[in-house]
Amino acid sequence: MSNFGDLEIFARVVAAGSMSAAGRELGLSPAVVSKRLRRLEDRLGTRLLQRTTRQIALTEAGQGFYERVVAILAGVEEAEAFVSRRSAHARGTLKVSAPTSFGRMHIAPHLAPFMKANADLSVNMLLSDDLVDIVGEGFDVAIRIAELADSSLVARKLAPVRRVLCATPDYLAEHGRPETLADLADHNCLTHQASDIWRFEGPDGDASFRPQGNLQTNSSEVIREAVLAGLGVALRSTWDVGDELAAGRLVQLLPDHESATNVGIYAIYPSRQFLPVKVRLFIDHFADLFGSVPYWERGAQAGHGRDNRAAPDDAPQRPGNPKGPPSGYRGNGANGHGDGAPAGE
Q: In tens digits, what is the pLDDT along the chain, a chain of 345 residues?
């Protein structure tokens, strides 16, 4: 049987990404960490880690071993909490991954009450629009905005995602307001990728539109700023522009057309059987905060995203840019991370 301390050192090295970093966390020298890992590998009769001068990587055997060690350590943590009658008390470090924009707007502002209620818990949060390897990179939980794919990981839905077409009142006063999907051909559509097709569920069933515009970017925040600056029409999630819709800074277009995706906001974690208290409390905190009708959705619905200003007499009554759509790219609002498009954006 392996020494339990060796298992903990192995798991910490994988999570930290290096022996020196793991040693600092554990109060051990890199030489001691290396010796304990070699002892573990010798006992198992197989190499768990590929070591280079810059990094370490799990071997195939090491990957499977690591997944099981993480489950064992989580189970031990739960057992200790049960015995000490502190099952509702979170301790240690919680490593969290979240998309950049959503994390900044809807996770970070609500961390303070969670951390005050769990004073013995430290949070290590990585905001990134890359799809992280939760197990391989040692994350306890990841927030993802995506269509849920089949996976060995466990997911809990925190909130639905609703995406709407929108533009500023000033843009609509100059270019007119589209009344049908076909009318969007006369507008500058702000997009993410060249393969984009906007898909909707409308009063007549499923419909789609291939947008054209003069701005294409891989950044959801650039699209957000561009639509707020009056550059064109965008397809945005209400979590991203709910306040602007409520305040009238943006106007929802074609409200009878809902974006046809199964995108949701999920908390993803490695194991249902061994769910550490710190992970459960974190997920419960945000699930309760967001609810079935999230606060950003309530604000957007209350404001209706409508332009209450009187339109000038000479404002065009049907949409249309007299110069035609601007030259530029065709794009896709689905790059995978920030706004909740099918690939996660």
A: 557 788 888 988 888 888 888 888 788 888 898 899 999 999 899 999 987 656 788 999 999 999 999 888 877 777 766 665 455 678 889 999 999 999 999 999 999 999 999 999 999 999 998 888 888 788 999 999 988 765 667 899 999 999 999 999 999 999 999 999 999 999 999 998 766 889 998 888 888 899 999 999 988 899 999 999 999 999 999 999 999 999 999 999 999 988 877 789 999 998 766 778 899 999 999 999 998 899 998 766 654 544 444 333 333 333 333 333 333 323 333 333 345 443 333
Topology of domain 163-259+297-330, per CATH?
A: D-Maltodextrin-Binding Protein; domain 2 (3.40.190)
Of the candidates 95, 117, 107, 63, the one whose C-alpha atom is nearest the C-alpha of residue 269 is: 95
Task: State how far the alpha carbon of 241 is from the alpha carbons of 20, 67, 227, 252, 300, in Å.
Answer: 43, 39, 10, 10, 8
Rg of the Cα atoms in the chain: 25
| Domain spans, the chain | 1-85, 163-259+297-330
Give me the architecture of the 1-85 domain, per CATH: Orthogonal Bundle (1.10)
Structure tokens at 127: 């905001």
